[in-house]
Amino acid sequence: MESAVNPPHIAVLGSGFAALTAVRELRRHHRDARITLVAPRAALTYYPSLIWVPAGLRRGADLDIDVSRFLAGQNVEFHAGRVSGLADGGRTVLTGNGSITNDALLIASGGRFLKSLPGIEHALTICEGVAAAESIRERLEKMDRGTIALGFGTNPREQGAMRGGPMFELLFGIDTLLRRQGRRDRFKLVFFHAAKAPGKRLGEKAVAGLLREMQKRDIATHLGHKPTGFEADRVKTEGGDVPADLILFMPGMSGPAWASETGLPLSDGGFFQADAYCQVTSADKVYVAGDCGSYPGPDWLPKQAHIADLQAKAAAKNLLRALAGKPAVARFKVELICIVDTLDRGILVYRNEKRALMLPSCRLFHWAKRFFEWQYLRSYRRTTRT
Ligand SMILES: Cc1cc2nc3c(=O)[nH]c(=O)nc-3n(C[C@H](O)[C@H](O)[C@H](O)COP(=O)(O)OP(=O)(O)OC[C@H]3O[C@@H](n4cnc5c(N)ncnc54)[C@H](O)[C@@H]3O)c2cc1C
Q: pTM above the 0.85 mark?
């Protein structure tokens, strides 16, 4: 659309959902901009399907997508490196592999999980990616019987910085898997959480529905007791211990460790503080999208791939407007869409600023999640220019 004698140089940090969506949006609206993407590898991890790895419905390799051809098709330079900090208010990106100057910056390098509870090494954390999901599959295969304890935490300094949905999926998926294998009667499943009503951000109807589903599947609960640590054979909580042979835990989230080396404003929970236009507050031409940001909005604003994509589109539009000397106008839609998959069925949860609803478990939603995965990844697997 726009062309310039001296095209601007835009740096995008990360190669996840938000970063790649931002690249697509930037290129769509600015044919000539020089875009450099900085990430450790030119790869997208498709996290939403990790929950299918323990049951063998997906292999890790299916979800680790090489995006180098996509980047080449978008005429994006790839800088392999890990960001370690920023200088000059964001105009210089510092990496383990040299520094990059830019005219505008979009930070989309994802969140970090707080591994501060003592004994956390005894828990497996699926959010860490493909290797963790494969370890869960291996542990399940080796277990003949026993207790599996599963839960998730939050960031005490920013209560919304949590990811509960995938843990419900993992719980129900393991239950379905063990039943399929005809050995569910040899296992006890226990769901633990600090709150009496876990997953409240999904909406009250959803909490009730999820607890009903646990009851229906004979999953025990240990609710309203804050976890205080882990040992090899137990989860320790303020309300007593939960004995366990396998512990699956998703800790609360924070921003990137290097955020403190940027001089940019951070939220209480350690995320880049953004305004409603995904601009890092009080920073010039520095934008943020996805899990590494903290945004104004309702307390249930999710940290999800879907909203990361919406934020990336808004951030990219506002960034280009700023380069053209125009004020920000694009905001992202505030909504939560989640299919809580149970390996063969799914429960649909939807929330926006007006309503919250939950549609009961059915096969269609499981297949919708599979279809969405195929459709989403199709464009990154294609070799042609998009
Ligand atoms: C098991 C699981 C299931 C999920 N299910 C769903 C779901 O069903 N629906 C949904 O909407 N969301 C789901 N999510 C959440 C979703 O995956 C995240 O919200 C989404 O990945 C956030 O996108 P992002 O681009 O902000 O970060 P990420 O996707 O985490 O991408 C971050 C990128 O930054 C790169 N990076 C990291 N550190 C650096 C550094 N120092 N320098 C440069 N680059 C760096 C990483 O390599 C990566 O490329 C799930 C998450 C998990 C873990």
A: yes
